[in-house]
Amino acid sequence: MITYSAATQALPYPPGMDQQGNPITLAWQIPGVFHNNYPRMLLHVDEWIRRGLDIDIPPYPKELNRLTGEHDAKVAEPVWRILVMAAELLRIVNVPVFNPGYITSLHLEDRKNRNWRINLMAPQLDYYPATVYQKAYHQAARLFTWMAQTNRTRQTLGLFYDAVQSGFIDVVSPLVPSSQSKLPILNEAHRRKIPFRHLGNRVFQLGWGAQGRLLRSGAIDSDAALGSVLSQNKKTCAHLLRIAGLPAPKHVSPVSLQAAVKAAESLGWPVVVKPADRDRGEGVTTGITNKEDLVAACKKVAELSNQLLVEKQVPGICHRIHVAAGKVVRVTRRLPKCVTGDGRSSVAALIAEANREQQALPPWKRLKPFPDDKLAQECLQIEGLDLDSVPAAGQLAPLRPFSSIEWGGNLEDLTEVIHPDNVAAALEAAQLLRLATAGVDMISEDIRIPWHQNGAIINEVNYSPQTGQSTGTGPRHTVARTLDQYFNGNGRIPIEVFAGGSLNISPALERQASLLGEGLRCFLTTHSLTLDTDGQPLNLAESGLFNRVMALLTRRDVDALIVVVQNDELLATGLPFDSINALELLPEPLTLSASGRFLDGSATLMDWLETIVSKA
After folding, report:
1. Which CATH number fits domain 250-309: 2.60.40.10, 3.20.20.70, 2.40.37.10, 3.30.1490.20?
2. Which tens digit of pLDDT belongs to each residue from 542-558?
3. Are 269 and 461 in contact (CB under 8 A)?
C-alpha cells in the first residue's frame, strides 16, 4: 500500500534533495528470503536490476541515513533499491526524476509477518498526477519481492519485462505527456545543477528569476508563435523560403489523382509525395517514378491528411542543421536504417546480430527492428547488394529508403565539415520564421559543398526540434550544446537569507541596497511584505513567504533576492529553493513550532538553512 501526502501548493525542496519532493508512506512485507541470507540476496536482486532495468544501484547515501541499528540497516538497503527502481520506472515513462529520494523512518508493525511501515521522501513535480508516482513505488516494491524469490532465466526475464510493460508502462503512459526531448534536456539541466520546475502543459521553467527560461520539448520562450504556425505547413514554409531567396522544394498541391499525375509529369520524375501538415516522415513516399506508385502514395497520404503535395525529388540525403540562439550547434546526416559491414559477415548475418543486440536490452530501450523484408531487399539492390552480400568494413547497407520515426535511422555528425554558406542559409531560414531554436532540414549530396553549387534545398524548417541525445560521433550532444547557448552557468540568481524574529530588518535592507549598487535588480521579501528595486511595496495576490519567493523566482526582472525569515511558516510549507548564497542571523531567534522540526522530521529549519548555503 502507498500513501502520498496531498500537495496543496507548489511542491518544496526537501532536505537533502535537489528536486522537489513529497512524503510517501509505504507498507511493505520484506521477503522472507532476506532474513537468513541478507548479503547474498542483495547481490541476487542487484543482478536482477542490472539485467532487467539496465541500471546499476548507486551506494545508499549515508549522509542522509538517519536510521540506527543493524536491523534497520538491513531493511534500509532493500528499500533504497525500491527507490532507485521507482525512479527508473518514472524515467521510462518520461517523468523527469533524477534524484531517487531517501528514507526518513522505518517502523516494524508486525514482527511475525515482517510487515514494515516505511516513510520516504520521494521526488515529485508540480502538475504530474500523484497516481503516476504511487504506481511507480507500488510496482517497484512488488518487483523487488518477486525478484528476491525468483531465479533469473530467459523465461523469468520475459515475465519481468511483461510485468513492467503491462503493470506500469501501459497503465501510466496515458497520464504523462510524451516528449522525446523533455527528458534529455532536463537530465542535462539537472547534471549542470540548473533548477527546473514544471509549470503545466509540458512547459518547464529552467533557472530562476532573470536567469530563467521557459522550455517545452525543443521549443524555447524566445520562439515566435507565428513562426511555429508558418513552419508547420510545408507548402507555406517553402513559399516563404523561396521569396526570401533561399533554396526551397518545387511542389504542386493537386486536388485529384489526375492532377497529381499531371503535376508529377510537369515536375519530372522522380517525385516525392507527402502530406503538407504532418511531421516525422509520416506519409512520405520517395523515389516515385511511375503513375501506379504515385497513385498508391497519394492514397497513403489521404489516410492522414487532405493536404497533398507532389514534390520534385532532388538528389541527396537529409541533413538536420540544429540552430539555437542564432548559432548552428550540431549538424547530422540522417541516414536510413542500415547495418554496417565488417568485411566478414553477410548482410543477413549483420541484421541478425543487430537484432540480437537489441533483444538483450529492455523492450523500452530497444531500437526499431532491423528488417530483411521486401522493402529492405529493394533498398539493398539499389546499392548493388543483397542479403548474401558481404559489405566491406565500414560500408553501410541500407534497409529503408530514408530515416523516419516509423523505421528509425542512423545519424552521422557533420558539424565540423558543413560549408559556411549552408550554415548561413540555415540561420537565415530560422531567423526568417523568427525561431530561436529550429531544426533546418537540408537535402544535399554533400553538405561540405555550398547549396548554390550542388542544387541542395531546405526541405523544411522544424519548430520545437527534437534535441534529445542520439547516436553520433560529435564530441557533445545536441542538448548540451543547446543549453550552452541559453544558460550562462547554472541558471541561478543570488539568494541571501536573513533569519530571526526581529521586526527590525535593517540589515536585510542594507544588503538589498548594496546589491542594487552593484547593478543587480534585487528584490526583498518577508512573510507579509515584498519590496521592489525602488523600495516600494509590490502587491502580490498570494500571501506567505513560500508563495512570495515563488512569485519572485518566476519574474524575469529579478537578478537577486533577499529573503527575510521571521517565523516558522517554512516548517509547514518547505523551502521553494534548494540552495542559498548566504545566511545571516538577525538578533532575535525565530519563533518555532512546538517540535521545531522540518516537514520530514529530520532537522530544524535553521539546521537546514545552514546546510544549503552554497560553498561556491
Report:
1. 3.30.1490.20
2. 889 999 999 999 999 99
3. no
